[in-house]
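Please review the protein record below. Let me know how this chain folds according to its tokens.
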Amino acid sequence: MNSRKEGTAIKEEMYRYIVKYIAKHVYPPSYKEIADDLSIAATTVKRHMDEFMDDGIFETDAEPGAQRAFRIRNTKVVK
């Protein structure tokens, strides 16, 4: 597999993990939890999260770098 495809596969796996985590816990995982649970580097998580934000897939009202301060775009927490 070439590195671009590996990066895309990791990004897709991250997205699926985050969606499932939010559905279960009602709040997003920390970057460390993502990295640990997917066995990837924290820098990889950070890079892909920046891309998700830039692409409008996730959004935040918090300052850049705030943990657990993102959500799937156009969603609300309903308890």
Notes: Helices lie at 3-25, 31-38, 42-54.
